[in-house]
Specification:
The chain is α+β, with helices and mostly antiparallel strands. Helices cover 49% and strands 10% of the residues. It has one domain. The protein is built from ten helices and seven strands.
């Protein structure tokens, strides 16, 4: 009798174990399949042949603004690289409302040193214009070591530190200037309501703010088109954009991770499409 009870107990135990494993495997596969939809966090990635960088949304917006202002001023990519390295060192590409003494903004410029009023310096477009205006006055800045050019503008206590960011700055410049197409990818959490194309008022506002930084937004070259497209993707969440299309490719906020440019024959070359 004891032997029969032991065998029954073992059989029941084995069945319970098998069922438990089956349920665990099923739950794992279900959660894994749902991961692209539930694990999305806001952020951007820059991917170029020379390297990749992960950015926060604000960092991507600041990077896009610096490139747009540089393009408006018709500056060489070297100037953009110097600006990026400086901004990374000073604020990690963030628009800070605090800093050493009275320093504020992306470049940690000081009102007391004549850079402008605090409210002006908290505007990345204004702050970037002030930085570039000072940089172009530095003799032979294109040929100087990056840290010397940046220090001539910033006059920081630790000017040597800018050099450490030159590699990352070059990756950002290649992407946000539009020289490397389809290199800026952003992902945003799915909206709580059913996603719809951004209304005209929002796309108009996005274009208005782009003009503040870039000036003329006409697409005269593919490079300029990709600059506009990259700026738009970086600002998509801010202006409710669901799709950005250009040059036979489109980025969509409605894809599982919103981080890839997909082939789209409807995306033309004459304008960057926003919706």
């Amino acid at each position: 009798m004891r032997l029969r009870l032991s065998r029954v107990a073992l059989t029941i135990t084995a069945i319970v174990v098998v069922l438990g494993v089956a349920i665990a495997v099923g739950l794992y596969n279900l959660l894994k399949r749902a991961e692209p939809f539930t694990a999305v966090t806001a952020g951007c990635t820059v991917s170029t042949p020379t390297g990749n960088l992960d950015l926060g949304v604000e960092q991507a917006q600041v990077a896009a603004t610096i490139a747009a202002v540089g393009a408006r001023r018709k500056l060489p990519e070297r100037a953009i690289v110097i600006a990026y390295a400086t901004a990374i060192q000073e604020s990690k590409l963030s628009n800070l409302d605090y800093g050493d003494r009275d320093s504020v903004g992306v470049f940690q410029q000081r009102p007391s040193q004549g850079w402008g009023k605090p409210a002006q310096l908290m505007d990345p477009v204004y702050a970037t214009n002030k930085f570039f205006a000072a940089l172009v006055k530095v003799k032979n800045y294109r040929k100087l070591p990056l840290e010397e050019a940046a220090q001539a503008v910033q006059r920081s206590a630790g000017g040597y530190a800018y050099a450490a960011h030159e590699g990352d700055a070059k990756i950002l410049a290649a992407a946000f200037t539009g020289r490397v197409p389809k290199s800026v990818h952003c992902r945003y959490p799915p909206p709580r309501t059913t996603p719809t194309p951004a209304p005209k008022a929002q796309t108009d506002e996005a274009r208005k703010q782009l003009r503040r930084a870039l000036g003329d937004t006409s697409i005269v070259t593919q490079k300029r088109g990709w600059l506009v497209a990259s700026w738009s993707v970086a600002h998509a969440q801010k202006y409710g954009l669901r799709r950005v299309g250009f040059n036979g490719a489109a980025w969509s906020a409605d894809t599982p991770r919103s981080d890839e440019w997909k082939a789209d024959p409807k995306a033309g070359d004459s304008a960057v499409e926003l919706s």
